[in-house]
Amino acid sequence: MNDTVIAIARKGPPKPADAVTRIGGNLEPHEMRDPFDIGEALTTLAERGDAVTVFPAGYVEPLLARIESVDPELPHFVLDFTGSEMPPSGKLVFVASIGGNAKLQFELEGDWRALDGRPMMVHAEFPESCLVLNRRAARRIETPVGVNYTASFALQGRQYELPLYDFSQSGVGLRATPDQCFGLTVGKKITGARLELGPALTLIADLEVRLLRPFKTFLLGEQVQVGCSFASISMQMQQTLERFVTSGVPERRAAR
Question: Is residue 75 very low, low, confident or very high in pLDDT (cuts 50, 70, 90)?
């Protein structure tokens, strides 16, 4: 057997905050069946050291793993469950976020026995197909006019409180004047942002700035659209946000 693999410089074990939820039944992912594309997606996860959330049947909480190595020629890959626990025999659902823009999900079934000399690692064949949800295509909810939807955070000694224009399961859109968003750049990490989604929902999440787009409005003059993806959000808060997004919240309207 060819033992050539793609070596991975590993990060530390994943944390509970790294867990992601399964793709909801109300969403419309596309199916990926090309082995080359599947191998490329798995290799991306491995090279980045991103967490893979594993859902065994009957488990209340998911397990967490990372992809240790990928061999696209066999094709197979190796999962490392260090810091979590070994999965039970049977069918597992694997979910991972790729680059903050897409969610990958697939199912595999096996005995999941540990590899010789590597007690927390298991071998897995490539799935025949994967579901891929492009998060940029996820439903976005525009905030009602006249209601307090804001994002508050501190960055490099400066306090920010920016109006929140829209949000989805993958991130939030902010609006600011050029002066208000001074210090924000694409790729900037925001830790512990407080997101006020109206009077009934407050979330604390880590964000990453993905977009800065200047524009003008007749009433407000020069503005900047600040698009942020969720860099870290607890699984409980993610599930709360998912319910909030999919519960039929109305599009932008005047508050009563």
Answer: confident
